Every structure is written in structure tokens, then in C-alpha cells.
Amino acid sequence: MTTTAHPGTNGRGTADDPDGPGEAGGRAPLRGLVWLVWRQHRLVFGVLLAAAAGGVVWCAVLRGQMAGFIDAHHIAGCSQISLDPRCAHTQDAVTEFRSTYGSALRLIESGLVLLPALTGLFLGAPLIARELEAGTDKLVLTQSVGPLRWLAAKTALPALVVGTAATALSLAFGRLWQVAGDEVSGSYWYSTLGFHSLGPVPVAYSLLALAVGVLAGLLLRRTVLSMGVTLVAMVVVQSAFAQFRPYLLPAVTTEFRNGRPAQLPDDDWLVGQGDYTGSGARLPDSPCDPAPSYEACQRKHDVAGQYMEHHPVSHHWPMAWIEAGIVLAVTAVLTVLAFRVMRRRHG
After folding, report:
1. How would residue 207 be classed by pLDDT, with cut points 50, 70 and 90?
2. pLDDT of the residue at 227
3. Which residues pair with 311 in a beta bridge?
4. Where on the phi/psi map is residue 20: left (φ > 0), alpha (ψ -120 to 50), or beta?
């Protein structure tokens, strides 16, 4: 009599069991781990992806409305106070534009600035800490799943979801910024909100927050404590980069001789200024105060003019990519540390 072995009776899993071991050597298929991670965190993933989709649509709608207003009033590149003759008599229109769309623009910027902290707080920190605190990691690790493979599955899918959401929002906001950024909106690329909302920067910080949360969870093994440490760490890191940012690229120095108006383009980032003497020496602090004897004071100290150190708008994207590259490098280091901690604890 001929008998047919039923799949699963030999311990290799059934064809209908996505979580069953199915690979040679009794190793669980990666799709089973990914499915498990999706099931565990589908609510957070869904909220994040839905928010990203809503943000993209909102940016597209605002872009159309802002472009129509700017074209109708001929205020492209104009600010409230502009030396460009083309922008004469446009102050009222620029003011109306800012009062109409300024709050929406700042709200989107604020959302992108907060995205990394929220990612680390509600996804990165609980991702591993909750498993360790509840002891559910022991159940998974007894199912022929190696600890490093489990950690890889636990972090890869969240990183993909976070990267996708942040990239979509950043691209959508970048298209909006092309129409309404800098002069006309009064929200410049070098501001804290502007720089953290554009290009690769919000994506890099979001991935960093995820890595910080995972490492904090592995080390602290407590969900609430890991969330607090992650939040503090991201605030410190972003604040530190804000102080370091002007030095990512050498600033351009422009000199204005006495009698020449010292005026930079509205979208240039002024990072330093002072006087310079006839010999070329720079005086960061002017020796002369505005007074009736101001010109005599300048002659006495041989002040030939004023200099300004600034980053032109052409520095924006190189600086953004440099900062994002540094942040991603730190993210990679933290990820490697997390895997080393896991290997040391579980072999």
C-alpha cells in the first residue's frame, strides 16, 4: 500500500503556512518574519503611510493655489522689502500671500521637522524594547530564527516604510517650495524649518531616529525609558547640527567699500559680518558707532568698508547632501552597534 507524506509532518512546514520553516536546515523563510513584523506594527505603518499620502495631496493642492496667486499678482521672487525694480508696488500682494498661505506652509514644515522625533518615539523605541520587556522575543527566537535574522527583519521593514513616507513628503514639499519658497513666503531655505524640511535631510533624520530607538530599546529593555532617551537624543543631535551647519561649506565673503550699499540677495544666508581696513585686516566688531563723527572714526581706524560672510542659495543642496550623508553615516554606525549588542547577548 502506497502512502503519501503530508507536508508538515516532517517538521518542514506546510505550503499554506507562511510562518512555517520552508528552507533547508529548518530555517524560517524571510517572508514569514516580514509578515510577522507587518502584523505587529501595521497600525503605526498604516498611520504613517496614510499621513504621507495626505501630505503629498495637500502639497499638490497648495502648489496649484500658490502658483495661481503668484502668477496673477506677478510677485515671483519678490519680498516685502525688495530692491528689485520689478517688485515695486507689490508689497501689499506679498503681504496678502503670506497671510493666506503662510500658516499652511509653516504647518507642513513643522510636520517634516517633527517627523524624525515622532518616528523614533512611536516606532523606533518600542520596536525592540516592547518585545524584550514583555519577553515575547524568547518565543520568536525558539522558532529556529537566529537573533541577527530576527533583528534584521524587525528593522528592515520599518526602515523601508519610514524611508518611503519621508521621501514622498520631502519630494512633494520640494515641489511646493519651488513655487513659494524663500522671498515670496519669507520662509527661507536656511531657516531651521526650511532646511530640515527639504531634500534628503528629513529622510536621513527619520532613519537616524529609527536607529536610535532600536539601539536604545536593545540597551535599556524598557519601552517608556527608551522612548524618552530617543526623544532627548534626537533633540540634541538636531540642535548640534543646527550649530554646526554654517561650517559644512566655506562661506562666501563679499566686501562693500565705504559709500556702497551693503546689501545681499534676500535668499542669501548671512553668517558673519564686520569692517575691513585698508590693509585687508578684518574687524568683526566695528570700532565706530553710528554718530555724527562716524566717518571721522572710520578714517581714524582706516576702515575701508564692510564685509559679509554668507552662503548663497546655490550652497543649499550641497549643504543638505553633506549633512544628510553625515547623518546616514551615524545611522549606519548605530545599526552596526545594535547588531553587535544582539550578537553578544544571544550568540
Report:
1. very high
2. 95
3. 269
4. beta
pLDDT of amino acid 8: 41
Residues in the chain: 347
Distances in Å between the alpha carbon of 60 and those of 57, 119, 179, 194, 199? 5, 24, 11, 18, 17
What is the mean pLDDT of the segment spanning 205-220? 95
Query: What is the pTM (predicted TM-score) of this model?
Result: 0.84
Give the residue-averaged pLDDT of 253-259.
87
Q: What backbone phi and psi angles, to 5 degrees, belong to 78?
A: -100, 145
DSSP secondary-structure letter at 146?
Answer: -
Nearest residue to 182 (alpha-carbon basis) of 201, 168, 169, 198: 198
CA 258, CA 262: separation in Å to the nearest integer?
9
Grid coordinates in use for 305?
Answer: 568698508
pLDDT band at 88 (very low <50, low <70, confident <90, very high): confident
Q: State how far the Cα of 207 lies from the Cα of 327, in Å rounded to an integer.
A: 9
The CB density around residue 141, as the number of other CB atoms within 10 Å, is 15
Euclidean distance between CA atoms 96 and 93, whole angstroms: 5
Q: Which helix (H) or strand (E) holds 278?
A: none
Evaluate if residue 140 carries a pLDDT over 70. Answer: no
Instruction: Say what angle helices 201-220 and 91-119 make with each other, to 10 degrees.
Output: 30
Tell which residue, 144, 196, 136, 199, has the closest CA to residue 167.
199
pLDDT of 137: 65
Give backbone dihedrals phi and psi of 28, rounded to 5 degrees, phi first.
Answer: -70, 145
Interatomic CA distance for residues 85 and 339, integer angstroms? 60
Q: How far apart are CA 276 and CA 303, in angstroms?
A: 6
161 closest CA partner among 303, 316, 51: 51
